[in-house]
């Protein structure tokens, strides 16, 4: 952890909030973040990393929202930095590329859920699953080490197909779906890109294999269900991390989202012949045998 003497911390912290986009989710993040810090910090909002770089600001802490802003600024910012709404695999890979894997002045609030929570969700929604399929690339290979024991804990088997190039997606997906009774999406942009998600969902639908994703957008597009955290929830958590830094001079370790939402596509579920429990029942099932207060 970065430690700064208390006297070096101003009563009102200067925070730079640097966005990857001006789209609605980012504006929702800004509103929730500003609302939480309104009485304790001065927040300067930058619509892009270029806007921030042009100002050459020297804030006490820089909060980057999304991977684009984080990738652009990570090499240049030496003060405390808090990336938020970033997928954990992509963020960890960037840290290694930048040589900052053990840097104590940077921490993150991830976009994706921890794998124990994600897998508990899968079996709360689809308790009869026996073969859980995962498509991955080399970028997300390490994720399998966390997913596999969680799948085994539920008495099921992890079925993996690793893709080397994008052209293998169709064949690799067909092979995987033949061996799986559910497809668990991992946050790998080389696989689940805006140009490929529709075809992936169509393939799973035709093969009668439900897909579980990590966002409301996945469910809107045709995934059976997803567990995800909203921009407002992550913004609240990021603001709490900033307040903690203001009080202690320490930037806490990287965190997964504390709060989450559940989305279910009832129409797709019925088309696949699935009976999905209510959100309350899903959360109750996730609690069984575990002590996760946020469930």
Protein model, in words:
- This protein has helices at residues 24-37, 49-55, 67-73, 88-97, 115-125, 143-153, 169-179, 197-206, 216-221, 231-248, 266-271, 279-287; strands at residues 13-19, 41-46, 61-65, 80-86, 109-110, 131-136, 157-162, 182-184, 211-213, 225-228, 261-264.
- By secondary structure, the protein is α/β, with parallel strands linked by helices.
- The chain has 2 domains: 6-111 and 230-248, Rossmann fold (3-Layer(aba) Sandwich); 115-227 and 265-287, 3-Layer(aba) Sandwich (Rossmann fold), CATH 3.40.50.2300.
- A 6-stranded mixed sheet has the order 7-6-8-9-10-11, sandwiched between helices. Strands 2-1-3-4-5 form a 5-stranded parallel sheet, sandwiched between helices.
- Helix 1 (24-37) links the parallel strand 1 (13-19) and strand 2 (41-46).
- It is globular and about 55 Å long.
- Mean pLDDT is 90; it is low at 1-10.
Topology, element by element:
Layout (H helix, E strand, L loop, with lengths): L12 E7 L4 H14 L3 E6 L2 H7 L5 E5 L1 H7 L6 E7 L1 H10 L11 E2 L4 H11 L5 E6 L6 H11 L3 E6 L6 H11 L2 E3 L12 H10 L4 E3 L2 H6 L3 E4 L2 H18 L12 E4 L1 H6 L7 H9 L8
Parallel strand pairs: 1-2, 1-3, 3-4, 4-5, 6-7, 6-8, 8-9, 9-10
Antiparallel strand pairs: 10-11
What labels describe this entry?
single chain, Rossmann fold, disordered N terminus, six-stranded mixed beta sheet, 295 residues, 2 domains, 18% strand, alpha/beta, 12 helices, five-stranded parallel beta sheet
């Amino acid at each position: 952890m970065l430690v700064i003497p208390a006297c070096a911390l101003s009563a009102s912290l200067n925070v730079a909030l640097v966005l990857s986009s001006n789209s609605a989710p980012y504006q929702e993040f800004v509103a929730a973040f500003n609302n939480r810090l309104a009485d304790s910090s001065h927040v300067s909002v930058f619509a892009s990393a270029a806007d921030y770089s042009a100002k050459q600001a020297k804030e006490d802490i820089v909060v980057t929202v999304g991977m684009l802003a984080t990738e652009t600024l990570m090499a240049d910012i030496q003060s405390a930095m808090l990336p938020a709404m970033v997928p954990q695999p992509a963020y960890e890979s960037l840290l290694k590329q930048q040589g900052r894997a053990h840097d104590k002045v940077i921490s993150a609030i991830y976009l994706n859920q921890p794998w124990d929570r994600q897998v508990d969700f899968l079996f709360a929604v689809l308790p009869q699953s026996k073969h859980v399929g995962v498509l991955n690339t080399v970028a997300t290979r390490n994720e399998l080490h966390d997913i596999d024991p969680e799948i085994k804990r539920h008495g099921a088997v992890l079925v993996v197909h690793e893709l080397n190039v994008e052209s293998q997606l169709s064949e690799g997906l067909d092979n995987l779906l033949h061996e799986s009774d559910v497809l668990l999406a991992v946050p790998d942009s080389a696989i689940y890109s805006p140009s490929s998600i529709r075809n992936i969902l169509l393939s799973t639908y035709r093969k009668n294999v439900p897909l579980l994703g990590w966002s409301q957008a996945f469910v809107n597009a045709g995934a059976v269900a997803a567990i995800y955290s909203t921009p407002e929830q992550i913004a609240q958590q990021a603001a709490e991390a900033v307040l903690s830094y203001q009080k202690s001079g320490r930037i806490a370790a990287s965190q997964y989202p504390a709060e989450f939402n559940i989305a279910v596509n009832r129409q797709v579920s019925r088309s696949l012949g699935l009976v999905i429990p209510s959100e309350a029942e899903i959360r109750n099932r996730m609690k069984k045998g575990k002590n996760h207060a946020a469930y």
